[in-house]
Write a structure and sequence with these properties.
Blueprint lengths: L6 H16 L2 E2 L3 E2 L7 E9 L7 E3 L3 E11 L6 E9 L2 E4 L21 E9 L6 E11 L2 E14 L2
Parallel strand pairs: 4-10
Antiparallel strand pairs: 1-3, 2-10, 3-5, 5-8, 6-7, 6-9, 9-10
The structure holds 2-acetamido-2-deoxy-beta-D-glucopyranose (2 copies).
């Protein structure tokens, strides 16, 4: 028997599918080598994002980013920064930070998962291209207590 799906329902399903593509996306990330023992990062989410391994960010637009992290340390206040990574050098990027408590709750409690959310505006002066990005969140009084991960983003022309 041929399954007959009402056209209206089909249209609705396709619309939902497209909506799913345009909304929140968990993206691929890699933890930084030296920061894995003291902090676990999970569920890095970029909206909008079409490709989870390489989100495309448009200039003159705001992109929402969020991630969960579980520090193994307690901390009264946190600092944060986002950087372009070019072999060994890191270049500050975006107006994020340095006060991380604006984007996540402080103080942090050891072994408790919390969420960091940030709306990133991509200005017109940021060059187009594919960029490795490193995100860091650390204890203000001891920067060896750090959460850190890498993602790749593409900044559209
Ligand atoms: C940048 O975005 C704003 C708001 O969407 C818009 O009004 C403005 O025209 C845009 N500027 C350029 C140069 O595209
Ligand atoms: C980003 O988050 C803000 C605040 O929650 C919201 O108003 C806006 O619509 C979001 N933008 C996108 C592209 O999801």
């Amino acid at each position: 028997m041929l399954l007959r799906i009402p056209r209206k329902m089909l249209r609705c399903a396709i619309a939902l599918l497209l909506l799913g593509v345009a909304t929140a996306k968990l993206v691929k990330f890699t933890p930084c080598l030296n920061a894995q023992e003291l902090c676990t990062v999970s569920d890095v989410d970029i909206t909008p994002c079409q490709s989870p391994s390489r989100c495309r960010l448009e200039k003159n637009q705001t992109t929402n980013l969020s991630f969960d992290f579980t520090p193994k340390f307690s901390s009264a206040t946190l600092k944060t920064g986002v950087y372009f990574v070019n072999s060994d050098t890191e270049m500050g990027f975006s107006d994020l930070g340095p006060d991380a408590c604006v984007y996540t709750s402080c103080p942090t409690v050891a072994d408790t998962k919390q969420t960091f959310t940030y709306s990133l505006y991509i200005g017109k002066r940021i060059p187009s291209g594919l960029f490795p990005i490193r995100w860091r969140v650390w204890d203000e009084t001891d920067n060896s207590k750090m959460c850190c991960f890498n993602i790749n983003i593409k900044i559209a022309k």
